[in-house]
């Protein structure tokens, strides 16, 4: 027997086993497909063929119920835009930079450090108090009030919220970053999420999960106002495309672009039912056509969840 004989024999045996291995692999894939949850199947259909990432989290347990485009959810960092305004508003209130009853006039056509930040709410709305400033996402309100914060306050709050570390919701996560604001203009841009901060969709989901878990009966005045503003945003504000008939939704939209990319990304983050949350939903649309696109997808995800309960 030559030295090559065992190799030939092994090759023949391997070829004999190959069909069985293929059958086992096929059965495994069929079994995986059959065990996919109805919500996961619905999510896959809703965002099929789109440059979209989405995550649905059980608000009570923190369990991830469905995902789409996990690499983007965990590794893509992007400016969040207005979806971080609820956390900014709470800091503004807690720090005394603004009071709930204070009104700020909207300048509407706003330019800071060469960035055009025009408000997109109806032009007849000329001034805002806290809850409606969040509902209508008034940039003038937020940048004016943020100018009153102390240096470093906003950066510390964002880091406390987990925007610089993996959320723990999904494996192999990356992490966002928050830059120190060197002057008032940089702090103002940071406060509306267009510069100085980039986060992952998973980090945003974890932050909104904390909002969804606030107990209304023991919430602080600032927490109650933020929750009210998020509900107003979907009831009649800029996030109203996400609302459902008969089910209250709390949420926020956002648009922002990368520093070297003129295209904007669309965000939605929120939870439902607003008064007793069951799920948290985050949608990120790469180079989306505006935040309405993300809100429309969120509406469909909330509807799919309700249908399958």
Concise overview:
The protein contains eleven helices and eleven strands. With 309 residues, it is an alpha+beta fold.
Characterize the structure shown:
- The chain is 42% helix and 16% strand.
- It contains eleven helices and eleven strands.
- The protein has helices spanning 5-34, 38-46, 70-75, 85-95, 130-135, 139-146, 153-160, 184-191, 201-212, 221-235, 291-308, and strands at residues 52-58, 64-68, 104-105, 111-112, 115-116, 127-128, 177-178, 197-198, 250-257, 264-272, 279-285.
- β4 (111-112) and β5 (115-116) form a beta hairpin.
- α2 (38-46) runs antiparallel to α11 (291-308) and α4 (85-95) packs antiparallel against α10 (221-235).
- The longest helix is centred in the first third of the chain and has 30 residues, at 5-34.
- Residues 1-6 and 16-34 have low confidence and may be disordered.
Q: How many discrete domains?
A: 2
Alpha carbon gap, first and last residue: 68 Å
Mass-distribution shape: globular
Rounded average pLDDT? 89
CATH class division of the largest domain: Alpha Beta
Q: Cα-atom Rg, whole angstroms?
A: 23 Å
Q: Bin the strand percentage.
A: 15-25%
Largest sheet: 5 strands, antiparallel
Helix content: 40-55%
Instruction: Tell me the series of helices and strands, N- to C-terminal.
Output: HHEEHHEEEEHHHEHEHHEEEH
Low-confidence stretches: 1-6, 16-34
């Amino acid at each position: 027997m030559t030295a090559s004989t065992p190799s030939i024999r092994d090759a023949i045996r391997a070829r004999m086993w190959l069909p069985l291995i293929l059958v086992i692999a096929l059965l495994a894939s069929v079994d995986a497909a059959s065990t996919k949850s109805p919500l996961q199947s619905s999510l896959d259909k809703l965002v099929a063929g789109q440059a979209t990432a989405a995550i649905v989290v059980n608000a009570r347990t923190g369990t991830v119920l469905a995902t789409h485009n996990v690499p983007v959810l965990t590794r893509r960092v992007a400016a969040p835009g207005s979806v971080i305004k609820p956390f900014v508003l709470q800091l503004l209130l807690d720090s005394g930079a603004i009071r709930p009853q204070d009104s700020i006039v909207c300048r509407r056509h706003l330019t800071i450090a060469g960035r055009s930040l025009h408000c997109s709410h109806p032009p007849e709305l000329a001034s805002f108090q806290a809850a409606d400033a969040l509902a209508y996402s008034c940039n003038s309100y937020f940048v004016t009030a943020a100018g009153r914060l102390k240096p470093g306050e906003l950066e510390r709050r964002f880091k406390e919220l987990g925007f610089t570390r993996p959320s723990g919701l999904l494996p192999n996560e990356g992490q966002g970053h928050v830059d120190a604001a060197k002057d008032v203009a940089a702090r103002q841009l940071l406060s509306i999420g267009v510069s100085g901060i980039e986060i992952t969709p998973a980090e945003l989901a974890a932050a909104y999960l904390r909002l969804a878990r606030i107990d209304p009966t023991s919430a602080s005045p600032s927490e109650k106002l933020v929750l009210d503003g998020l509900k107003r945003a979907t009831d009649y504000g800029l996030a109203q495309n996400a609302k459902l008939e008969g089910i209250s939704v709390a949420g926020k939209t956002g648009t922002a672009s990368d520093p070297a990319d003129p295209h904007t990304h669309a965000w939605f983050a929120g939870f439902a039912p607003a008064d007793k949350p069951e799920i948290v939903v985050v949608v990120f649309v790469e180079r989306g056509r505006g935040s309405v696109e993300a809100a429309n997808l969120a509406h469909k995800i909330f509807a799919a969840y309700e249908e399958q309960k």
